[in-house]
Amino acid sequence: MDVFIIVWLVIFGSVFGSFLACMGYRIPNKIKTTYPSSFCNNCKKPLKWYMNIPIISYIILGGKCAYCHKKIGLIYFFCELLCAILFGFNYYLFKFDFNFFISTILTCMLIVTIVSDFEFYYISDRILIIGGMLIIFVSFIFLEKNEALMRLVSGLIMFIVMFGIKLMGNRMFNRESLGDGDIKLMGIIGLSVGLLNSFVALFFGSLTGIFFAIASIKNNKDGLIPFGPFLIIGALMVVYLSQYINPYLEQLLAI
Length: 255
Ligand SMILES: [Zn+2]
Description:
The chain has 10 helices and no strands.
């Protein structure tokens, strides 16, 4: 039964990942999310159904548009694959409990943000609002009322803390230190994992972000690093590792 659910989630994840990656392209470019149907980003010709099968079409077409033969960004293939794997993995780890829904909502936000932030340095407010509302909804269903309220407060505090860090950073470096999208995103992460865990997520996110920055230093001409996806990766790591992290945090609080 479990295997059946995982296979189904992997297939659904690849289809949904394809949709989310498409949103990541459309929202920053102000293209409606429902119309037109999928098209080539280069020649704008509409795609036939067999050119639009997640993961498989990319491999069959050799990563190129069937009409204009322009390369399709590897990022879209990567997003479909990542979403498929994580949907299955989230269920494998958590079954259908609270953490499954939190990690799956974060996964969806990650896929959109990978495309929008890496390609256009843009984090969509719409995606943050939808993700935040879903997280609040899931929290009030699965958690005790007090705990769910605490998450709301955590989100708010995290937002204020990040805003403070931005103001300080702006003064110190005399330039925009943190994007507004990153600040709002940390608020959502506060909602998802609670206050203390948000700082752990921020730490993990910064660490993976720095690794990426070092690894991509040759290809990165404009010197900008999209921070959003790494913050969400940090939050996902916290959810995945929560059973190992939480005992330490409790000890820390007890001191
Ligand atoms: Zn084309």
